[in-house]
């Protein structure tokens, strides 16, 4: 049988209140709404980054494609210009000049086709670069949102951490004033239940947690001396009696 001064037993309720407060603060810290917002923003940022990589790759490929198309047009234009110079000079045999005229006509047609291809590529490049610019704008907007919400998160963390530090300091002070064996019973119950170590008891009724007692437990409660430490059979809670005269 464990015994402890009545004042120590009742101090367990103060300790339990502090532990409950600390647990609530820790839960608040883990479940701040801003954390979900940041997670959503980070996911959005990752999606935008992947889209931007693809958009920049497409723009780069299209730019190379345009460079080649421009070179093809310039090559045909230069050849046509050389032939036209010969025609304008009238140098050469008549049949050669006729052949040159035919080739100049073919080159003109070829140049027209290549310029249409060049124009189509330019349009695709314009669209690709516009996509890159749009994604860049979106990325910068998301980054600004992340920065703003990160500041909000850090402010909330600082507030909660400061309050939690105060609660833990008070908890250490209160725990240091309680009988060591009684404190061990309390900590053992908290480990078993995941946080609840002491329950207030008035007569046969508990406060803060529902505890059903067997007939033998009720008899033991009625017969126990004031300094006898009572625990529940099912959970191991320390039962702190608050009846007048105890």
Describe this structure in words.
The longest helix has 82 residues, at 94-175. With 246 residues, the protein is mostly helical. The protein has 5 helices and 4 strands; from the N terminus they run H-H-H-H-E-E-H-E-E. The chain has a 4-stranded mixed sheet with strand order 2-1-4-3.
Task: List its salient traits.
246 residues, mainly alpha, 6% strand, rod-shaped
Secondary structure topology:
Layout: H1 6-30, H2 33-89, H3 94-175, H4 180-193, E1 198-202, E2 205-207, H5 215-223, E3 230-231, E4 238-241
Parallel strand pairs: 1-4
Antiparallel strand pairs: 1-2, 3-4
Helix pairs in contact: 1-3, 2-3
Principal-axes shape call: rod-shaped
H and E order: HHHHEEHEE
Whole-number radius of gyration? 42 Å
The helical percent reads over 70%
Structural class: mainly alpha
Fraction in beta strands: 5-15%
Count of individual beta strands: 4
| Number of continuous helical runs | 5
- Alpha carbon gap, first and last residue: 18 Å
């Amino acid at each position: 049988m464990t015994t402890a001064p009545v004042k120590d037993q009742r101090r367990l309720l103060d300790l339990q209140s502090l532990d409950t407060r600390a647990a609530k603060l820790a839960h608040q810290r883990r479940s701040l709404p801003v954390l979900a917002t940041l997670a959503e923003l980070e996911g959005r940022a990752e999606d935008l980054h992947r889209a931007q990589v693809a958009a920049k790759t497409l723009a780069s490929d299209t730019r190379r494609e345009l460079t080649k198309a421009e070179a093809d047009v310039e090559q045909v234009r230069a050849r046509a210009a050389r032939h036209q110079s010969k025609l304008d000079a009238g140098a050469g045999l008549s049949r050669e000049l006729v052949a040159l005229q035919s080739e100049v006509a073919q080159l003109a047609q070829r140049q027209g086709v290549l310029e249409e291809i060049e124009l189509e590529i330019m349009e695709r490049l314009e669209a690709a670069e516009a996509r890159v610019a749009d994604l860049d704008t979106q990325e910068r907007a998301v980054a600004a949102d992340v920065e703003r919400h990160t500041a909000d998160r850090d402010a909330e963390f600082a507030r909660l951490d400061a309050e939690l530090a105060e609660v833990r300091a008070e908890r250490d002070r209160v725990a240091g004033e309680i009988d060591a064996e009684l404190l061990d019973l309390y900590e053992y119950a908290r480990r078993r239940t995941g946080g609840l170590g002491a329950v207030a008891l008035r007569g046969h009724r508990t406060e803060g947690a529902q505890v059903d007692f067997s007939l033998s437990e009720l008899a033991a409660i009625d017969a126990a001396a004031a300094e006898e430490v009572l625990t529940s059979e099912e959970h191991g809670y320390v039962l702190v009696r608050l009846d007048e005269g105890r």
